[in-house]
Amino acid sequence: MLKEYKTVREVVGPLMVVEGVEGVKYEELVEVRLQNGEKRRGKVLEIDGDKAMVQLFEGSAGINLRDTTCRFLGHPLELGVSEDMIGRIFDGLGNPIDKGPKIIPETKIDINGSPINPVSRDYPSEFIQTGISTIDGLNTLVRGQKLPIFSGSGLPHNNVAAQIARQARVLGDGEKFAVVFGAMGITFEEAQFFIDDFTKTGAIDRAVLFMNLANDPAIERIATPRMALTCAEYLAFEKGMHVLVILTDLTNYAEALREVSAARKEVPGRRGYPGYLYTDLSTIYERAGKLKGRPGSITQIPILTMPEDDITHPIPDLTGYITEGQIILSRELYKQGIQPPIFVIPSLSRLKDKGIGKGKTREDHADTMNQIYAGYASGREARELAVILGESALSEADKAFARFADAFDRRYVDQGYETNRTIEETLNLGWELLSIVPRTELKRIREEYIDKYLGKTE
What we know:
Blueprint: E1 4-5, E2 8-12, E3 15-18, E4 28-33, E5 39-48, E6 51-56, E7 69-76, E8 78-81, E9 89-91, E10 107-110, E11 121-122, E12 127-129, H1 133-136, E13 141-142, E14 149-152, H2 157-167, E15 169-170, E16 177-186, H3 188-201, E17 207-213, H4 218-238, E18 242-248, H5 250-263, H6 277-285, E19 289-291, E20 297-306, H7 314-322, E21 325-328, H8 331-335, E22 348-349, H9 365-389, H10 396-413, H11 423-434, H12 447-454
Parallel strand pairs: 9-17, 14-20, 14-21, 16-17, 16-18, 18-20
Antiparallel strand pairs: 1-7, 2-3, 3-6, 4-5, 4-7, 5-6, 8-10, 11-19, 12-13, 12-15, 19-20, 21-22
Helix pairs in contact: 2-3, 4-5, 6-7, 9-10, 9-11, 10-11
Family: Belongs to the ATPase alpha/beta chains family.
Protein name: V-type ATP synthase beta chain
Keywords: ATP synthesis, Hydrogen ion transport, Ion transport, Transport
């Protein structure tokens, strides 16, 4: 039998202290009834003897200590899941906000989940096509991988996220694919942009959207990515689907974590973030992957904005330790009008070698990828040298690499947000650009591939 307590002793920000409690557990869900009959929800954050600290989802405004009652519900925050969630839009706590009917759940699942046991993991090795050349060709996304996008304030990461959600697919017949999109702390305009884009392009038919807006409570922001991942785990491991999870913006999530940590009077770590930020982020990122003996998979693309474009900031820094690479958006390329402004040199997919090659993409993929990287780096160096010493100081090879770098930015990177390139088109475009460079400089590609794809003319 559930007990009701009228022993609320203190309220500080989103936190509330209840005394005289019995049998209460960590993460347990709490129903709070205000003096005017309004109900709010929270969860147990800490227990000390007969005192429980409750974190409120809807905030603490208007709470009267004397007349407020609490009921501890005996279970953690759960999400009712069903295949009917595909094509629907929910708030950060899993309530429908698209004017559709309530979901009749097949089961209810604790949103806290758990990271995948390394022993049970299957190694990621299958290619996912995003339609974006800089990702597919040079920083290949592999099924079961977690590959974050590092952006900056004002950069078009929302456009990139929408493009990936719209275009991503797994190659092969009969593969069931879904996108779970979790947005944290975004503005109403951003939320409307995603909803309109998904609806207009038909991507909503295979997507589940969880939207937490900037004016929603911070504690809801902490629950949103776990709601999205719980839904993804159900679709992947119970229904055998290949699920792409896009989470934006993890910086807003970390800010909410810092806000709650400050309210709890915890000792702050780097830049005021809690000392357990690394551990907390890992509980999100490590829920991506494949399970041995199960057909489904979860691939994760978290998006975060680097404060002041600082890649050493705690959020991108710790994210880089946990995930398998990063895609970096460049302010320099953005100012040049290049869309999407993905800077390939510092970008990296640590699992790309496992998802490319014969039978997956094409036999020449690895060689051309290495050559394009080397050629673009040489071309950028040559351009910088020309600014300092003048173009006359460059060798013919340097001039060719500089032309290659210009063409690469203009044709390979700058594809726009509506162009969906197949992996064949991306690889063929790479060979077209490599024809700018003298054949003698193609030192990272095997001769048989040069003969087959470039021809014998320089």
